[in-house]
Amino acid sequence: MVENVIWPAYLDAEMSRSEGRRVPADLAVPEPTVDEIASAVQQVGYDAVIEREKTYPREYEPRGRVLVKDADDATKSDLLGAVAAYVSALRE
Fold first, then answer.
1. pLDDT digit string, tens, across residues 64-80
2. Nearest-CA neighbor of 80 among 16, 9, 19?
3. How far apart are CA 55 and CA 91, in angstroms?
4. In whole angstroms, what is the distance from residue 20 CA to residue 46 CA?
């Protein structure tokens, strides 16, 4: 069982790659929330668990993280790209 972790910093348009962003700038969104990420993960077809009290190691304020369950069939970069596309679609 593979369990991927998605931190909001991975999708944050206001962060640089060296600060932790993992998707291209055109897919990134400003200040994504764990709720948006979790609903996007469910749209992609995986189960999501929100852990709100967690803090990304490169940040000081806790924004939480999303655990993606049973994502055996997708690479992490593919998963992040699909989730980022759904988060930006949810905001429109």
1. 999 998 888 889 999 99
2. 9
3. 24
4. 23
3-state secondary structure of 31: coil
Confidence of residue 1 (pLDDT cuts 50, 70, 90): low
pTM for the whole thing? 0.92
Long-range interactions of 68-75: CB distance < 8 A, separation 24+:
68/3, 68/4, 68/5, 68/6, 68/41, 69/1, 69/3, 70/1, 70/2, 70/46, 71/2, 71/3, 71/4, 71/46, 72/1, 72/2
| Side chain identity at residue 52, one-letter code | R
What number is the average pLDDT over the span 21-45?
94
- Do the Cβ atoms of 51 and 64 come closer than 8 Å? yes
